[in-house]
C-alpha cells in the first residue's frame, strides 16, 4: 500500500469512528462501511480492508470488486486461505467467518447487493469478470 493510500484509509477510519460509523465526506460518504481484518495469505500478517456492505439477515455481504478492477482484491485471497476474520461494524468489533458464496447464493445475493449499493451495477462489465460475493457471518 502506498503512503497516500494508507493516509487516505487512516483519515477515512478516523472520520468513520468519530462519527459513529458514518462517513460524511469523500467518495464513500453515506455508504455503509465495515473494517475487515484478515490474515495475509502469503505473509500471515494482519491485513485491513475497508469495505461497503449490504445485509442478508444477520450476515454482512461484501463484494470482491476492487472498484471494478480486472483482478480480485488481495483481501479475497486472504479469506479464501483463512476465513477467520475480525470485523468492526455498526459500533462493535467481533470475530466472524468470511466465505465466498457459491453460484446459487451469488445469483440471489448479487442483485440485492446492487439494489443496496447501485454503484456496483457496472463493476462486472468494467472488470470483465464475475465479481465474487462474500458472506461474513458473525460468530
Rg (C-alpha, Å):
14 Å
CATH level-1 class of the domain at 54-85 and 95-138: Mainly Beta
Averaged pLDDT: 94
CATH architecture title of the domain at 54-85 and 95-138: Roll
Question: What fraction of the residues are assigned to beta strands by DSSP?
Answer: 25-35%
Q: Which spans of ≥5 residues are poorly predicted at pLDDT below 50?
A: none
The total beta strand count reads 7
Question: Which homologous superfamily in CATH is the superfamily of the domain at 54-85 and 95-138?
Answer: Electron Transport, Fmn-binding Protein, Chain A
Specify the number of helices: 4
Question: What do we call the CATH topology of the domain at 54-85 and 95-138?
Answer: Pnp Oxidase, Chain A
The largest sheet has its strands arranged as 2-1-5-6-7-4-3
Alpha-beta content class: alpha+beta
Would you list the SSEs in sequence order as H and E? HEEEEHEEHHE
Shape from CA axes? globular
Q: Which helices and strands, and how do they pair?
A:
Elements: H1 3-18, E1 33-39, E2 46-52, E3 54-56, E4 59-63, H2 74-81, E5 84-89, E6 92-100, H3 103-116, H4 123-127, E7 133-138
Antiparallel strand pairs: 1-2, 1-5, 3-4, 4-7, 5-6, 6-7
Explain this structure.
This protein is an alpha+beta fold and 139 residues long. It is 31% helix and 31% strand. It is built from four helices and seven strands; from the N terminus they run H-E-E-E-E-H-E-E-H-H-E. A seven-stranded antiparallel β-sheet has the order 2-1-5-6-7-4-3, with helices on both faces.
Amino acid at each position: 500500500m502506498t503512503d497516500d493510500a494508507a493516509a487516505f484509509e487512516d483519515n477515512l477510519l478516523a472520520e468513520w469512528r468519530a462519527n459513529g460509523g458514518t462517513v460524511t465526506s469523500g467518495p464513500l460518504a453515506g455508504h455503509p462501511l465495515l473494517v475487515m481484518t484478515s490474515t495475509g495469505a502469503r505473509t500471515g500478517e494482519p491485513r485491513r480492508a475497508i469495505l461497503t456492505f449490504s445485509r442478508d439477515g444477520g450476515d454482512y455481504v461484501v463484494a470482491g470488486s476492487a472498484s471494478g478492477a480486472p483482478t480480485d482484491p488481495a483481501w479475497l485471497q486472504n479469506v479464501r486461505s483463512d476465513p477467520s476474520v475480525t470485523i468492526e461494524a455498526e459500533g462493535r468489533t467481533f470475530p466472524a467467518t468470511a466465505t465466498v458464496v457459491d453460484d446459487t447464493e451469488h445469483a440471489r445475493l448479487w442483485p440485492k447487493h446492487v439494489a443496496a449499493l447501485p454503484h456496483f451495477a457496472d463493476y462486472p462489465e468494467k472488470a470483465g469478470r464475475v465479481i465474487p460475493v462474500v458472506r461474513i457471518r458473525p460468530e
